[in-house]
Amino acid sequence: MVQRPRGTRDFTPKVMSRRLAFEHLLEERARRHGFSRIQTPVFESLDLFTAKSGPGIVSQLYAFEDKSERPLTLRPELTAPVMRMIAEEGMQMLPRPLRLSYYGQCYRYEESKKGRYREFFQYGVELIGESGPLAEAEVIALAIDMLDACGLQNWEIRIGHVGILKGALTGLGLSGETPEGASEPPVASAMRLLDKGDDAGLAELFSSNGIAPENAAPLRALSQLEGGRETLGPAREILSSLAGVSLEALDDLQTTLDAVAALAPTPPSLAVDLTVARGLDYYTGMVFEVKVPELGGEGQVLGGGSYKLLHMFGLPDLDPCCGFGLGFDRVLLALEAQAEASGREEVVPGEVDPSGRVAVIPFGIDVSHVLPIVAGLRAGGERVELELRGRKIPK
Fold first, then answer.
1. What is the rounded CA–CA span in Å between residue 38 and residue 107?
2. CA distance 116 to 174
3. What are 234-239's contacts with CB under 8 Å, separation 24+?
4. Rounded to an integer, what is the distance from CA 338 to the centroid of its chain?
5. Does the pLDDT value for residue 218 go beyond 80?
6. Relative to the CA of 166, which of 97, 105, 189, 364 has its CA 20 to 30 Å away?
7. What is the structure's pLDDT at 392?
8. All domains of the chain, ordered by start, with CATH?
9. Cα dist from 104 to 40, 73, 99, 287, 320, whole Å
10. What stretch of H or E contains 105?
11. Coil, helix or strand at residue 75
């Protein structure tokens, strides 16, 4: 018997009803925030992703050649295709900012486990052509609104600013250039280590770059700050002692957080974490991520921030942009776990059709007499199932 490929899933009618309800909920929230739906191809030119992420990503892709030997790949993510679409379709001529939403399958050849599949679904939004604290607040507020509307509980949103962190690291003497033979700049390595809380690795990195490990003390102090907007005061005191740090960026982050508080429902937990780095080096300013405890090590369900990508497509005047990607499957897994724990049957609001269905059974009459009735009911919006096998009603 032929089975489905590893890392993929089938969706039965009950599961599909849940997924459709969740997609509709997300799209409705995006619409309320002024975003419009777009769609890009499932496969793209391989160069689209190697140009952004380097040739090393090919081992993680479902890459192939078509019959004309053009290198193609199933898309591993959706942001780069959206950037390509903006440039190729001339969307830079449209009124700004562009508020775009999208949803679809992505493919990565990696280990399959709970919360991580080779075929996975992502919902995302991009706000193009406008930057600054208010634009960032709009995007964060939409993310919070979506998670609040779907009923997710016990999640935490962590908000930081990679510009502040990069400034602190360069001020301490780390380079932003990639050394020969290395895979990333020392600044990027330090950001990754800080994000993981790897103090030993950070000290080793400083030593290997000729910097006294004790100089990392201000960064450790930053990473130990806990709380919401109230942590910006202590953060300012720490950063004021470092060269090369823009306190203006800290002011912008304060403005963003104030706007989020006015625009969005109050999240279960909001933390300011200036060591949040995100995994992609095109982020330039505010960054944020959402985690839920039900997924353990795969707990991140949403992430985004301000980035510069459109200059790679000849549109530098549209940078920076702001957006996020929501792990559709991961949020559903968390919702299912929470529903099971609470004994709740409905996982996603609206997944159960309250209208029910109508069964039409032509008992003892010619079926042709009931067909107009079936058609009329369906035209009126009813969900109608016609008995097709001529079965009798049991007594």
1. 19
2. 34
3. 235/272, 235/274, 239/164, 239/168
4. 20
5. yes
6. 97
7. 58
8. 13-40+75-175+227-232+240-342 (3.30.930.10), 358-395 (no CATH)
9. 9, 15, 17, 23, 24
10. strand 98-107
11. coil
For the record, the structure tokens of 6 come out as: 């590893």
Rounded CA-CA distance 136/306 in Å is: 7
Name residue 267's beta-bridge partners.
Answer: none
Residue 335 CB contacts under 8 Å (≥ 6 apart), including other chains: 22, 150, 151, 152, 347, 348
Q: What is the full DSSP assignment across 148-210?
A: HHTT--S-EEEEEEHHHHHHHHHHTT--SSPPTT-SS-HHHHHHHHHHHT-HHHHHHHHHHTT
Starting at the edge strand found earlier in the chain, the sheet holding 300-307 runs 36-37, 98-107, 119-128, 321-327, 300-307, 283-291, 156-161, 269-272
Exposure string (b/e) for 255-277, b if CB count within 10 Å is 16 or more? ebbebbeebbeebeebbbbbbbb
Position 278 scores a pLDDT of 66
- Cβ–Cβ < 8 Å for 332, 347: yes
Q: pTM for this structure?
A: 0.91
- How many Å apart are CA 252 and CA 287, to the nearest integer? 13
What are 232-264's pLDDT values in tens digits?
999 999 888 877 677 898 999 999 999 999 999
Q: Which residues contact 238 (CB under 8 A, 6 or more apart)?
A: 218, 221, 222
Alpha-carbon distance of 130 to 139, in angstroms, equals 11
Q: Is the pLDDT of residue 189 over 90?
A: no
Give the span between the Cα atoms of 143 and 129, in whole angstroms: 19
Amino acid in the structure at residue 21: A
**What is the three-class DSSP state of 390?**
coil
User: What's the pLDDT band for 121 if we cut at 50, 70, 90?
Assistant: very high
**pLDDT tens for each residue of 140-170:** 999 999 999 999 999 999 999 988 888 888 8
Judge whether 324 and 124 are in contact, CB under 8 Å.
yes
Give the strand pairing for 71-74 and 321-327: unpaired
Is the separation of the CB atoms in 19 and 11 below 8 Å? yes
Tokens linked to 264: 């969005």
